[in-house]
Amino acid sequence: MRVMVAIDDSEESFYALNWALDNLFRDMDAPPEASGGGGGSEVVPPTLLLANVQQALQHYGVPIGPVGGAAFYPTVTVTESVKKAQEQISATILSRALQMCKDKMVITETLSLNGNPKDEICQAIEQKHADLLIVGSRGLGKIKRAFLGSVSNYCAHHAKCPVLIVKSPKDHE
């Protein structure tokens, strides 16, 4: 079984990861029970896929001067600087998540992706043949969800596998 957890810098996504570790991977360090039949079938532990998606850098021109005048576009140096910062953010997020998995002795693979999180997560599910997607719920209100969109809602409707949306305790208050 391959379980993917979508991780970002929110506490809700780390709560979802912790929930998955506690509920789906809790007995990974325990020896497998005797199968009684002597069939020798080996228990294959599930794999946890950690996916972090950084928004793709948008190349916008900023108008300079009067209407119809010149426009300023970010230089290659600025673009590369932003990409490097995004890579560092992704590495930090995945490092924190990997430490949580290491503490529970769970086999983990990481994915650092760039683009629209909704699309990238759904594509990664197909490419990595994930059997389950776990995402945290940010608890956006109806208005924010209408304007910002909901990654978890999009994935629940478009992912090619079951999706488990984990609500943090603060959402129940």
UniProtKB/TrEMBL annotation:
Highest taxon listed in the record's lineage: Eukaryota
Pfam families according to UniProt: Usp
Stored InterPro entries: Rossmann-like_a/b/a_fold, Universal_stress_UspA, UspA
Domain (UspA) ranges: 85-167
The name this protein goes by in its record: UspA domain-containing protein
Organism: Rubroshorea leprosula
